[in-house]
Amino acid sequence: MTSSLPTTDNRILTVDALRGVALFGILYSHMVLWYTGGPLPQNLYDKLGIGSGIVMGLYVAFFMAKFFSFFSFLFGLSFYLQMKSLEKRQDNFVVRFGWRLLILGTIGLIHHILWPGDILSIYAPLGFILLCLRKLNNRWLLVIGFLLISNLPTKIYEAIAIEMNPTVQRDSFPKADADRYYEVIKNEPFLEMLKSNWQAFSYKLDYQIKSGRLIATLGFFMLGMYVGRQRWFENLDTVKPLLQKICKICGIGFGVLMLIGLGTFVLDQAMDLHFQKSLWSGWFYGMLGDFFNSGLTIFYIAGLTVLLYKTRWQKLLYPLVSVGKMGLTSYLMQTFFGLLLFYSFGLRLFAVTTPATNALLAVGIFVIQATFSRWWLSNFNYGPVEWLWRSLTFLKFQPMVRRPVMQVTNAE
Question: For the chain, what is the domain count?
Fold first, then answer.
């Protein structure tokens, strides 16, 4: 049985449901690795049992780098929807949205000091770039967006670097950095952790640039804005065949990438070619990984939207709408749980629990978030951080408490 996707006057519930899914994926990704935001010593992974090994495999294949991209796509979509909303208010979009991004960046910096894995401090400056690209025509928006999410500029730079100096070993996560970060989480008091996190900001930017995560995030912003322009989520019945076609193309692409990856691995083992010792081999597999991650993100977005045409999937996923509506509050709340559970000033469970246990904790925390969000939005118009962000954006306190709906009856 199928059903059209519902909307409301002010929000598209499908977008909120997708944002809820993205937030669960982000929570799972962070919880599995003890809510860390940096490199960890290799010996932590060497001691994993079968259950945790399976959880880590699922994390690498289906979660790592996918759900932040998912979240980034929805940011780009929201950018467009907010732009149209401000235009209807006859507001100066550039000034208002620029101010809104500055507020988001401030929230992100505060969050980074608490936890260096913060993404808001990355979103804010990229948002200003998106602001400059808002008048780019659809064709270029789509072409540049796909080039960026596939990480081709970074791979071209890496290829040139390897060709110019093929003997240099490129270690993204030096052992000393991993050992230091381990000590910060395990033993440092709260104030020392804040200082260490602040000092790690330049490291985060360096990683975002060198890994290509920065440009991939911008690419997903652009694709989200493109989809907003095309009004896909406002005309879902019309766009359904296209979404199904996208899912099919992505499925074929996954098969081809897996065959290439497995084929080269088998060839290496059979002929003893020592691919693993070659910088070019690392470059090649890194490129396959980038294609796989971006393709799977698109598959998630299109596939979940198609599933939401089915009544049984609506019943399963629409409880996540409240989490999606309170996306910023929910994202920051996850950090509260992570710090409380794993860090030295909390319950100190870092490296005590296993990734398998952490995955179960992630499910439990998300259930708490969904329950809390539903209760909160039954009484208030916005999540607490959303209310603060909106009030500062318009420099005016927004109505917070939800007013009861008055029912009018006809007198006889």
Answer: 1
